[in-house]
Design a protein that fits this description.
The complex is a heterodimer of chains A (about 300) and B (about 400). Chain A has 2 domains: about 55 residues; about 210 residues, MetI-like fold. In chain A, about 70% of the residues lie in helices and about 0% in strands. A two-stranded antiparallel ribbon of chain A has the order 1-2. Chain B contains 8 helices and 20 strands. In chain B, helix 2 crosses helix 3 and helix 2 runs parallel beside helix 4. Classes of the chains: A mainly alpha (about 300), B alpha+beta (about 400). Chains A and B meet through helix 8 and helix 9 of A and strand 6, helix 2 and helix 4 of B.
Chain lengths: ~300, ~400
């Protein structure tokens, strides 16, 4: 579904009193395994980037070239000059930024309701939020298409944005709710006694403390909206309205695939996600609520 | 500064037994009242109702001359110190202290002046740029206090503010809070489950149990004249010794085990021929040498040396209190032991003795009982009983 991986902590070997060499061997074993996994994860990315710099005959040669010996930039210029590139960039940016912003605002409010208020049907609601994520996307495409065409949202960015939100929001609400539950209720109570309104306490006290949760959520929303292909492909027909991922597919035609520019385009498309991640990752500071209550 | 008043206040959480029942309590301007009781007695609920964090099911709460039932917490002009301090972790100590002033749109330089003044007073001046995580428990506690003080509110509400501190620091902060309160003369309602805190800090102490106010009085009167068995067993550490006895001879004698005790100048005429509960404070249990009054024979079970004094558990023949529901659960007297075999029923009297008294477990001992120091309670209602010839200690407080 997404490329969010590698979040699990490195496995820690249990501490046992065994001969040192054995312990070291074990550790080395884990390390080798880790490196293997890393290689498997990184190789496709490397191959994409290196192919983007190879001239055409190197790409199609039977002996694979792991390092581009004669790097060229022509693939990039070809990709950029491919029809509708800038349209696609604009569309992707619009869709992604709207999805990120809207999902953060809506998810924050929804998570507040779920975490801080008790209302009839709260538990079933929480379960349903989780449940809808289990439904495979492919099964929803046709019903969604019918639904969206009835409300005249096919071939419109707004329609795609709404659909992306429906996929991003459950995860976002669920995540933020978890973060909210971790904030002691005395903090907002204290703010209210100190003179803040209920909403003021949410915004001034809870919101800043949700930083890590908001960052995690926004990364997820960004990746989802930026990388999504199937929905965009099915719902956006007009070339001017297509997003970058659909535009990438245009390199594959009936006559074959133009690998060089395709890889260059793919490399370019990956950049914003990486840049976004680098920008916000520092905010995933752990233990932000430390010191609120007794230590 | 204002007075604080509960008028027939009740709180019910949907369908459950009421958490607070018909609470009437008035805290005068500048007074320090401690609300004390075992956990779940409704004391925190009562406090939170004043703060506006809990809705009031019935009755009225007044701060000054305003009925605050329908006011939001921020409109009540009170400050609250929470058990876990509730400092804002993302703000510096300065911002924490200034938060309430900022919310009330106090001018910037006035904010700075007041925050710095308070920080100076509480020894936090060097820490204004730090964040709560960088402070020790005691310092955080001080910041929490400072955040309340700096607002100059109508009243302070404190919800077990010391319970997260270690024992030594707690004693120190206890004195500090009492000192601050006296200096500022702010009406204060303080909630705790610790009766030592209650006794040492409060001008008056209100004891609650199961949502019902049991007694409100000065610490000394609460100790000397508990209104019922619950207060008697809750206040005082170690708790009051309680056992059952029968009143005989027209209310002039008390009989328990093999002991027949002349009541001296006191009369329990209405209870003649009936059973009641007798209470005696540990410090009134004395060794009988040189005493020419009534004595009770017993046997030493255990000696706990505390340095300055010793606590001695003495087993005597008497009926233990059957009605466990009338006393504080934590102060339950130990059950009958096997130490005195010839006696059918025995009760452990806890005595506070001078450290020079040499007694060893198993030793037979005679205990002096001064009838004028005994407390009497009804077996059914648990209420304190007045004796006809009324010495000061037996008066019932309202």
């Amino acid at each position: 579904m997404s490329s969010v991986t590698q979040i699990a902590p490195t496995p820690v070997a249990p501490v046992v009193t065994r001969p040192r060499s054995r312990k070291r061997l074990r550790k080395a074993g884990w390390n080798v395994l880790g490196l293997l996994v890393l290689a498997v994860m990184v190789f496709p990315v490397y191959w994409m980037v290196s192919t983007a710099f190879k001239p055409g005959h190197d790409i199609l040669s039977y002996t694979p070239q792991f390092i581009p010996t004669h790097p060229v930039l022509s693939n990039f210029t070809d990709a950029i000059h491919q029809q509708f590139f800038w349209n696609a960039v604009k569309n992707s940016l619009i869709v992604t930024s709207v999805v990120v912003v809207l999902s953060l605002v809506l998810a924050f409010l929804a998570a507040l309701a779920l975490a801080k208020f008790s209302f009839y049907g709260r538990k079933p609601f929480i379960v349903v939020i989780l449940g809808v994520q289990m439904v495979p996307l492919a099964a929803l495409i046709i019903p969604l298409y019918i639904l969206m065409s009835r409300v005249h949202q096919v071939d419109k960015l707004s329609g795609v944005i709404v659909m992306y939100l429906t996929f991003v929001l459950p995860f976002a609400v669920w995540t933020l709710r978890g973060f909210l539950l971790g904030v002691p209720k005395e903090l907002e109570e204290s703010a209210m006694v100190d003179g803040a309104t209920r909403f003021g306490a949410f915004v001034r006290i809870l919101l800043p403390l949700l930083g890590p949760g908001l960052v995690a959520t926004s990364i997820f929303a960004f990746i989802q909206a930026w990388n999504e292909f199937i929905i965009a492909y099915v719902f956006l027909h007009t070339p001017e309205k297509q997003t970058l991922m659909v535009w990438l597919a245009s390199f594959t035609t009936l006559r074959g695939t133009d690998w060089g520019p395709l890889m260059a385009g793919a490399t370019l498309c990956s950049l914003p996600v990486i840049i976004f991640f680098v920008l916000v990752q520092r905010k995933i500071a752990f233990g932000l609520t430390a010191g609120a209550v007794k230590g | 500064m204002a007075e604080l008043e509960f008028i027939h206040v009740g709180k019910t959480y949907g369908g459950e037994a009421p958490a607070v029942r018909d609470l009437n309590l008035k805290i005068d301007e500048g007074e320090f009242v401690v609300l004390v009781g075992p956990s779940g007695c409704g004391k925190t609920t009562a406090l939170r109702m004043v703060a506006g964090l809990e809705e009031i099911t019935e009755g009225e709460i007044r701060i000054g001359d305003r009925v605050v039932n329908d006011l939001a917490p921020r409109e009540r002009d009170i400050a609250m110190v929470f058990q876990n301090y509730a400092l804002y972790p993302h703000k510096t100590i300065y911002e924490n202290l200034a938060f309430g002033l900022r919310m009330r749109k106090v001018p910037k330089d006035e904010q700075r002046r007041r925050v710095e003044e308070i920080a100076q007073k509480l020894g936090l001046a060097d820490m204004l740029n730090r964040r709560p995580a960088q402070l020790s428990g005691g310092q955080r506690q001080r910041v929490a206090m400072g955040r309340a003080i700096v607002r100059e509110p109508e009243a302070f509400l404190m919800d077990e503010p010391l319970s997260n501190l270690d024992a030594k620091l707690r004693v120190q902060m206890r004195a500090e809070i009492a000192r601050i309160q006296q200096a500022l003369e702010v009406t204060t309602l303080y909630v705790t489950h610790d009766q030592v805190e209650a006794m040492t800090m409060g001008d008056r102490v209100a004891v609650m149990r199961d949502g019902v106010l049991q007694q409100v009085d000065t610490p000394q009167r609460l100790y000397d004249a508990p209104a019922n068995l619950f207060v008697a067993s809750f206040v005082g550490s170690p708790p009051m010794n309680l056992f059952e006895a029968t009143v005989e001879a027209d209310g002039t004698q008390l009989v328990f085990g093999e002991t027949r005790l002349e009541l001296g100048g006191r009369l329990l005429r209405d209870y003649s021929g009936r059973r009641l509960v007798v209470g005696i404070r540990p410090e009134e249990v004395r060794e009988a040498s040189g005493w020419d009054g009534a004595r009770v024979r017993g046997r030493v079970l255990l000696v706990e040396a505390l340095g300055a004094e010793q606590l001695i558990h003495i087993e005597i023949a008497a009926s233990p209190l059957e009605r466990a529901d009338l006393v504080d659960a934590a102060a339950q007297p130990p059950g009958p032991t096997l130490g005195v075999e010839e006696l059918e029923r025995s009760v452990t009297l806890l005595g506070r003795f001078d450290r020079h008294l040499l007694l060893t477990p198993g030793e037979a001992v005679e205990v002096a009982i001064d009838p004028s120091l005994l407390h009497f309670f009804d077996l059914e209602t648990g209420l304190a009983l007045p004796t006809t010839d009324v010495p000061a200690v037996a008066g019932v407080a309202g």
